[in-house]
Amino acid sequence: MTTFPSFKLRFVLLAVGTVAAVLSLFLGTEIDPATPVAAGEPKKGFIDVTEAMGLKEMSGGTAAWGDFDNDGWVDLCVGGQVWRNEKGKKFVKVADLPGSAIWGDFDNDGYLDLFCYETGRLFRNIKGTKFEEVKILPKLPTRVCLGATWGDFNGDGFLDLYLGGYEIWPDKEYPDIILMSEKGERFVETWRQTRILRARGVTAADFDEDGHLDVFVSNYRLQPNLLWKNDGKGKFTDVAHAYGAAGNQKLGAYGHTIGSAWGDLDNDGHLDLFVGNFSHPPDYQDRSQFLRNKGPKGKWHFEDMTKTANLRWQESYASPTLGDYDNDGLLDLYFTTVYAGDKSVLYRNLGKWKFEEIKASAGITPALTYQAAWADFDNDGQLDLVTGGRLFRNPGTKNHWLKVHLEGSGKVNRAAIGAQVRLRLGDQTLTRQVEGATGQGNQNDLTIHFGLGNHKDPVKLEIRWTDGTRQELETPVDCTITVKRAEGK
What we know:
This protein is mainly beta. The strands form ten sheets. It has a four-stranded mixed beta sheet, with no helix packed on it. A hairpin with a 2-residue loop joins strand 4 (75-78) and strand 5 (81-85). Residues 1-42 have low confidence and may be disordered.
């Protein structure tokens, strides 16, 4: 049965004045006198702040954002380098780990840990001060891995891992595997792929809203993609063909999918899917796809909206990431490339499955790369981007915004990975989730971000925790709120 438990709510306002004072008086909130929201006319063009932020030596490997020291400023792990965010003013490197990694609190101690999927090694965060390897993983059969995702697949409140297996071309291939957590004390292999495909990106979402986290696997070499539907106990069934998500088979082939991204692209309250396909000129190879989730009326099947979206074809598209960079309430697309002559692109979502290419990518000038992840590193409410070994600051618009940081407890993992938040605006329902991974091996900030356009009044939220319970609350905008899952629920 769905319940609405009590919750603790903390506001970290990025504005000052009457509103903050009133909230402090009546709600007992904590006020953070951080950078005020920028006013004035919308500005154009991202700004390369790599050197200014101390990131000149940043790796070009895949990137993951996460606040590992719980100071409210999101940190960065890129290519195994861990960079601490010094209150949005600079980054300082604090660790060098063996390979690209993703953030997840595997032991539920309140500090984000790192799984280096490239090397199959796990590092515990010691109270936000350092990282120590913990050897609680079994011997892994997957020696080449380009993507993995965290997620609580059996509903016990602890994060598990899905690892994608890739190849040593042309002779060797490796299986996907699932590692289940035993209360954060160790991991055991519970499933190994028998029909081995060549996975690249792995990303998870409860796309059918049954309370169980499902997994989408992007497969390369003209192979079908996989959509694993979870029964809630960690048993998965591939429904990609039946639900319209495997790809468009022509001449016996599919596409070269490198990375994919979940997101509510049409604000109907359901998570859609962008499938990022590298493809050579022959048209039998799948181009990138925009797949609309048809929701309960369509039995959670997907409708191909690619022709309407009208994405310009390039041969070497690689890793996509979704984020509302202009805070208009619609998720936009940034998509990298890896061949000389091609260019990474930024597409603005115009609504109704129409997308507009932003010429010269609004000042984003990365090298050829698989790196792409969004986060608001300076806490001004505008999503910034790391890509191609560069950090690009978003100067923003005057549109309103809201950020929501979730903390789980009980049967909900502490990092709340897999939880969803819905926000109602007029006749639209904006849906966002806490992601365990996106694209090929990247990870956006675990703090959920909403752009709200010109809406300045308080908004109502519905939080859907991973154990099926829900919470409702009302909050002012242009601030960050932290919602803690009630203990013992």
